[in-house]
Amino acid sequence: MTGPVEVSRPQALAWRLGRQLLAPVGTTSAEDVVRRLAAIPAQSDAELAVRTRQQDPRPGELDEALRDGRLLRTFAFRGAVHLLTPAELGAALSARPRYGHLREIFANEPWTLLKALAWQGDLTFGPSRDGEPTFQLLAHNLRWAGLPDLADAGRHAIEAYVRAYGPTTSDHLQYWLGAGLSAGRRRIQGWITELDDRLAPVVVDGAASFALAEDVDELLGTEPTSTVRLLPAYDQWVLGPGTADPTIVPPGQRAVVSRGANLVVAGGVVVGTWSVRQDHLTVTFFADAGRPSSDALDEGIARLGASLPRPLGTATVT
Question: What predicted TM-score, i.e. pTM, was given to this entire model?
Answer without folding.
Answer: 0.85
